[in-house]
Design a protein that fits this description.
It is a single chain. The chain has 76 residues and is mostly beta strands. The protein has 1 helix and 6 strands, in the order αββββββ. It has a 6-stranded antiparallel β-sheet, with no helix packed on it.
Length: 76
């Protein structure tokens, strides 16, 4: 869990199962790797963006990127 604590209150881009892509700020997590992401935007096909607010993501396999100073670093 130390891994996620480094990214608290940072903007993340998450690719979830089913091809869903959301961007938001990591607000919390638990020992089961469930994530709470706030101020979320769902990135749809064709560049469409939907504001969806807070997302509580049950642990799923995901591709996880951390966004910092316009650079994307792949973490997993």
């Amino acid at each position: 869990m130390v891994f996620f604590s480094r990214f608290m209150d940072k903007k993340l881009s998450l690719k979830l199962n089913g091809g869903r892509h959301v961007q938001g700020i990591l607000r919390g997590f638990d020992p089961f790797m469930n994530l709470v992401v706030d101020d979320c935007l769902e990135m749809g096909p064709g560049g469409q963006q939907n504001t969806i607010g807070m997302v509580v993501s049950k642990f799923v396999f995901l591709n996880f990127w951390y966004c910092h100073q316009r650079k994307f670093v792949r973490l997993i």
